[in-house]
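Record type: monomer structure entry
Structure origin: computed from sequence
Chain ID: A
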Amino acid sequence: MKNIVLLFISFSLVACNGTGQTNPKPKSTMSDANKIVKTEDEWKKILSPEQYNILREKGTEMPFSGKYYLHTDKGMYVCAGCNSELFKSDTKFDAGCGWPSFSDVVDSTKVVYTKDKSHGMIRTEITCAKCGGHLGHVFDDGPAPTGLRYCINSASIEFKK
């Protein structure tokens, strides 16, 4: 069963994968003084097992399963690890890929962009600049005006009205 789940996730990632990804925005300029540093035991105490797997171990939730995939309330999405403001609800759109998708971040210095060659794909991973938590990936197949699609794990974010 585990192999079937991994196969399903792999196919879903390929279906949602942009090709020839480059880093669409510059790396974060957040100073080290503003960064949050915790031990893995400290993270395990404040995050759910699913949040820990995604934010700290770069896991991925099953597509179409996250609590924010079809969420439409107005407000702000923040990092589940440190409450850093990341995405405004008015940039959220349904990309049909199974994960919450946003066309832009609140501020490009809030995330770090890193080339990710895992799972046989070339993508751009985004992590929270403040706590280093894995959020998801960004692709260059989003809507205007940015042309970007931030494909985010629901477990890596929280919603604030």
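Annotation 1: The chain has a mean pLDDT of 87.
Annotation 2: The chain is about 20% helix and 25% strand.
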